[in-house]
Design a protein that fits this description.
By secondary structure, this protein is an alpha/beta fold. 30% of the residues lie in helices and 29% in strands. The radius of gyration is 18 Å and the shape is globular. The structure holds copper (II) ion (CU). Copper (II) ion (CU) binds next to loops.
Length: 148
């Protein structure tokens, strides 16, 4: 009786932790609601241990972490063009993500994992105008969420 109670309890704990970690789908698109060459959604707030699944809905895109917009020690990644790619983000902070071929067109995204411990460094980084504009939109969403 005691054993079966413990097994049941353990099973409940395990299933709870499986439910807690979420998977977010992000489309990589030639044309989206927010313009041409976009990640949708461009900004996402996640918990530590959540997974992002990048889906190449249009051809010619990938997802790569941006140098300088990722906390030191956090896992960098670069997916293959046209391939679906999943990554579990274990370190807290902001992750800047770009599409390698369309970075110059401003195809960028921001993931906030837990709290944005590297916000100041992210906000201070220098980029060319288009990338900067894309990142600024993401950062503004982060800021408005933070202070409202
Ligand atoms: Cu792209």
């Amino acid at each position: 009786m005691w054993i079966s109670f413990m097994i049941l309890r353990l099973a409940t704990l395990l299933s709870n932790s499986a439910v807690m970690a979420k998977t977010f789908e992000v489309q990589m698109l030639n044309k989206g609601k927010t313009g041409k060459m976009v990640f949708e959604p461009a900004y996402l707030s996640m918990a530590v241990g959540d997974t992002v699944n990048f889906i190449p809905s249009s051809k010619g895109h990938n997802a790569e972490t941006i140098k300088g917009i990722i906390l030191k020690g956090a896992k960098k990644f670069k997916s293959k063009i046209n391939k679906e790619f999943s990554v579990t983000l274990e370190a807290e902070g902001l992750y800047g993500i770009k599409c390698t071929p369309h970075y110059a067109m401003g195809m960028v995204a921001l993931r906030q994992v837990g709290s944005a411990v590297n916000f100041d460094e992210t906000n201070a980084i220098k980029h060319r105008a288009r990338q900067r504009a894309g990142l600024q939109i993401c950062l503004n969403r982060f800021v408005s969420r933070k202070f409202t």
